[in-house]
């Protein structure tokens, strides 16, 4: 029997509840303590809105709240906690955090994205949709570009009934998020034209993309609407969801869209304890349909209690003071956070550098980073280069200048296949693939990698609570990596294609089982999409590599200076942040939405733990961009001309 056959024969064990901890005896796991407001929010068993600013430790709070509810039995076995995040890496990070804090309960904590959850419901229960909405040939996922939305709106403007003439002039950029996302699908498709403009436009959109011959075409907003219709039209599904998930967490709630809020209300508006975490000052997804004042809307709709976290575990006191200046422009009532981070001596916490041009800027910063690394215990990964947009424009110069010092740059916004590099590297599937290759290349000394790969395979084969099954997984993992090692030895990277390497790894690793696991646990993460992106990334780093270890190091570029946009930086932190391009060319849209632009500025600068360096050029500072320079001056940030 092959390794994959033996792994596939592992049976799913029957889970048993563990001993409970009395509520009064429960203490946080893995940390010393929580701040007073966090303790109050954690112990509240009703609907809770936690307002948590940058560095407040919201992921840790959610992990501790999960541990509290699971270990004390307030979430009784066999019920689960559902955690919904907006980004895959945030969902994965929270899942890993809970598994580390309460491994004995990790199987009862489901962490996924909104899109993954709603897509999973549609995939599982589509036949239960009302007859008018049932699919006969399945669906493809495709997001319509703005030009296609504009063409559609022009078409219906001419074909609309006379009573709606002039009322269907919706903005193309907001039509899908606001109109399609805000329209609850009726059980039966309206057949007459005596409807309002929103219902008419929504119906025609669904007719054009979904209610047509052949395969339907949907995006994630439409999948959300179908999922909401399912739970509204089929009470058994709603009851089952509420019984399975009596407790729900929603992260980054300030970025909730109309569709997501509607879905949350329909499914979990009653008989469920919902905890949201968010910060209106970090609302940067308005362009994607985030509803205004989402936190306040939640507290009103769900009769929730609000708790405000006041500690900042990330940034030094000086940087917290700078953050407060910016935060006060977004919310004059905001209270200054208390820094719990230890400040470093010997450097300016925040400064504005002015440069004569891009080449001078890249050369100066690269030399500065190299000197700082040489004179400290810091690594390239401690530094981030953040910009509002067009991050690829910065990459060539910085890559070349840093390479002269032997320092890598990793552009997290780069496209590999159909994913961004950041999403690929955070994917559990991709992490498994990298781990298998690393264990095959280097059989000893990678204890942490072995543990992570083993844990993933134990989940794949349902062996997490069965010692005998876990032992079989370990034995077969050893056999798998031994066989893959022999293949790598006879296929050096200089003569091997990425496609062949990925194909061989999947043959040994039982791709069918992995595909089933991904579909069941991460329905928003398409197995073929991740595999294609993994292969594309591998192909770019194969050329000229001396051995597979070099290839894998380059693939991950874990020890690299990170280049990313402010939107991609959200939730991350770095010792030193260079906030590039504080000028009108990067912030050209600031005048059209000053609040969201200021929130984006706030998110980017709050990634820094110890040092924050803004960069600009000698271009005109009049107009909307002048507000940023005024804020920096108010905060006492010095400006230095670096030539």
TrEMBL record:
GO terms for biological process: recombinational repair. SUPFAM superfamilies: P-loop containing nucleoside triphosphate hydrolases. Pfam families: UvrD-helicase, UvrD_C. Keywords: ATP-binding, Helicase, Hydrolase, Isomerase, Nucleotide-binding. Residues 31-316 form the UvrD-like helicase ATP-binding domain. Its EC number is 5.6.2.4. InterPro entries: DNA_helicase_UvrD-like_C (IPR014017), DNA_helicase_UvrD/REP (IPR000212), P-loop_NTPase (IPR027417), UvrD-like_ATP-bd (IPR014016). PROSITE patterns: UVRD_HELICASE_ATP_BIND, UVRD_HELICASE_CTER. GO terms for molecular function: 3'-5' DNA helicase activity; ATP binding; ATP hydrolysis activity; DNA binding. It catalyses: ATP + H2O = ADP + phosphate + H(+); Couples ATP hydrolysis with the unwinding of duplex DNA by translocating in the 3'-5' direction. Transmembrane segments: none annotated. Residues 316-571 form the UvrD-like helicase C-terminal domain. ATP binds at residues 52-59. PANTHER family: ATP-DEPENDENT DNA HELICASE SRS2, UVRD / RECB / PCRA DNA HELICASE FAMILY MEMBER. This is DNA 3'-5' helicase.
């Amino acid at each position: 029997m092959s390794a994959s056959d033996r792994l596939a024969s592992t049976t799913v064990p029957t889970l048993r509840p563990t001993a409970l901890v009395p509520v009064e005896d429960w203490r946080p796991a893995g940390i010393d303590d929580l701040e007073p407001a966090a303790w109050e929010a954690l112990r509240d068993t009703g609907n809770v809105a936690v307002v948590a600013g940058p560095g407040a430790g919201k992921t840790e709070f959610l992990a501790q709240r999960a541990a509290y509810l699971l270990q004390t039995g307030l979430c009784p076995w066999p019920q689960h906690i559902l955690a919904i995040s907006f980004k895959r890496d945030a969902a994965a990070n929270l899942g890993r955090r809970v598994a580390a804090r309460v491994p004995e309960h990790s199987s009862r904590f489901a962490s996924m994205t909104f899109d993954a959850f709603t897509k999973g419901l549609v995939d599982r229960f589509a036949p239960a949709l009302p007859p008018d909405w049932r699919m006969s040939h399945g669906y493809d996922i495709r997001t319509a570009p703005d030009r296609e939305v504009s063409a559609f709106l022009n078409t219906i403007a001419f074909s609309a009934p006379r009573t709606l003439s002039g009322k269907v002039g919706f903005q193309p950029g907001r039509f899908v998020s606001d109109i399609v996302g805000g329209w609850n699908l009726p059980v039966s498709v309206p057949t007459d034209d005596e409807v309002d403009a929103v219902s008419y436009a929504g119906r025609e959109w669904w007719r054009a993309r979904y209610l047509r011959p052949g395969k339907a075409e949907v995006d994630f907003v439409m999948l959300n609407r179908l999922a909401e219709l399912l739970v509204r039209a089929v009470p058994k599904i709603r009851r089952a969801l509420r019984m399975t998930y009596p407790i729900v967490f929603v992260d980054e709630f300030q970025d909730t869209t109309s569709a997501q809020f509607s879905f949350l209300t329909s499914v979990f508006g009653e008989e469920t304890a919902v905890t949201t975490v968010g910060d209106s000052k970090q609302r940067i997804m308005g362009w994607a349909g985030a509803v205004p004042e989402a936190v306040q809307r939640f507290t009103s709709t769900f009769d929730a209690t609000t708790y405000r976290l006041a500690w900042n575990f990330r940034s030094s006191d000086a940087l917290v003071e700078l953050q407060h200046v910016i935060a006060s422009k977004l919310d004059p009532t905001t209270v200054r956070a208390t820094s719990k981070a230890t400040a470093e001596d010997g450097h300016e916490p925040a400064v504005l550098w002015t440069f004569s041009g891009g080449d001078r800027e890249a050369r100066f910063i690269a030399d500065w980073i190299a000197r700082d690394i040489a004179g400290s215990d810091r690594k390239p990964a401690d530094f981030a280069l953040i910009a509002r947009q067009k991050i690829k424009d910065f990459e060539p110069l910085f890559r070349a200048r840093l390479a002269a010092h032997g320092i890598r740059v990793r552009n997290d916004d780069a496209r590999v296949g159909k994913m961004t590099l950041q999403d690929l590297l955070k994917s559990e599937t991709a992490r498994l693939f990298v781990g298998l290759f690393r264990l095959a290349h280097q059989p000893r000394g990678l204890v942490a990698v072995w543990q992570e790969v083993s844990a993933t395979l134990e989940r794949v084969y349902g062996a997490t609570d069965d010692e005998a099954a876990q032992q079989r997984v370990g034995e077969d993992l050893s056999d798998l990596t031994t066989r893959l090692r022999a293949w790598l030895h006879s296929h050096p990277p200089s003569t091997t294609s990425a496609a062949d390497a990925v194909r061989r790894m999947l043959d040994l690793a039982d791709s069918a089982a992995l595909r089933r696991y991904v579909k069941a646990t991460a329905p928003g993460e398409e197995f073929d999409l991740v595999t294609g992106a993994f292969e594309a990334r591998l192909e770019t780093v194969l050329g000229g590599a001396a051995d597979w270890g070099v290839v894998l190091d380059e693939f991950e570029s874990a020890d690299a200076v990170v280049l990313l946009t402010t939107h991609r930086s959200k939730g991350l932190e770095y010792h030193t942040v260079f906030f590039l391009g504080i000028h009108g060319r990067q912030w050209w849209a600031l005048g059209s939405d000053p609040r969201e632009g200021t929130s984006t500025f706030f998110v980017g600068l709050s990634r820094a733990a110890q040092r924050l360096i803004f960069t600009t050029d000698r271009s005109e500072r009049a107009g909307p961009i002048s507000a940023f320079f005024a804020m920096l001056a108010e905060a006492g940030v010095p400006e230095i001309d670096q030539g």
